[in-house]
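Hi R.,

Here's the chain you asked about this morning:
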Amino acid sequence: MSLKGDTRTVGLADIFQALALSTRQGTLSISSGGKEIKVYFDSTGVRLLSTGTLRHTRLGSILLEREGFSPRDLESALKIQKSTGRKLGQLLVEQGILTSDEINDCLRRQIEEEICEIFLWSNAEFNFDPGPPVEDFFDPAGEGRTFELNVIRILVEAARNVDEFAVLLTRIQSSNSRFVYKKNGFPVMPDTSPFGIPLTVVGRLPDVLEEPRTLDEIADSLSIERDIAAKLIAHLIKRASVLEIAELPSLKLAPQLPPPSPPRNIWRDKAHFNITDRFCRDKLDEIVHSANTPEEAAARMTQLSDSVHDRGDDRTAASILKAALDIAPCDAALRKKAVQVFVSQWKFAEAAKLVVEGCQLQHAVAS
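And the predicted structure, written out as tokens:
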């Protein structure tokens, strides 16, 4: 029996989590705006099928992001590949530029990026057909190898990807930046058609961005809406890494900020305990009101969580860690521990939410 629906009523993260927990064998097809991708689920994880209208990310774009791999290395290997027809990965290993394991890491990331990309689609429709795969698995190296991916890692990476893209898109739409193709190195052309934008439009970008242009100028030159142009620029900055941003100088003076208010223990107001165990709730109240700093309170709450976990109450232990994060959200070690606890309980959506919150805090601190 097949399962059908759309992401306006059920989120993709919930669908992936449900299928992983059920260990059902079958193919999940996701489509939006003329694009389609197919992911196969079984008890070992997920794999990408070779069919679908989505154009796959080139391996070269991912290779260029590796430290120590230069555009000159890629250009040389691509020339040999064009004349011999051999696989890019094989050539790089034979030339001693990369190891076989490093190539495999890039191939695995290539597939992960394809799957994570669908979490950026809007109003997507999905259909799950149980049973064995009826098509071949995606084999980017063309060597008969396929890669099984962990659902937990996919959900966490997808959550981070969505959050980073939203932050980047907001910055692009609200800034006075100009965008231009990098002049140095090997020019990597975009090889995908994201957000339903025709590939012919994407292919015009090198000419449009020969000189620095604003977002409005890009939208006018490509005859597309401003928000679509912003998504395209954000996609290329994040994926292809071929654009550089030059901020226009601002003539506005920074406003004078009032002197900071005297520090207050407002962190105590953030302590909310949705815990039914009366002993633990009373203990948490005592910790919060006796601790001098949020860091001290969070450390003592973590110790309480460990003791509750030792007695077998994993649900309450996780709730205590979540409460500790409410008062000490910047504690990276505490956040990592809470994520691991939720993952161990198969609560992938909660774990992904904590990862996204951590990324948002890092962006806020960096800005």
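Residues 185-192, 248-254 have pLDDT under 50 and may be disordered.

Let me know if you need anything else.
M.
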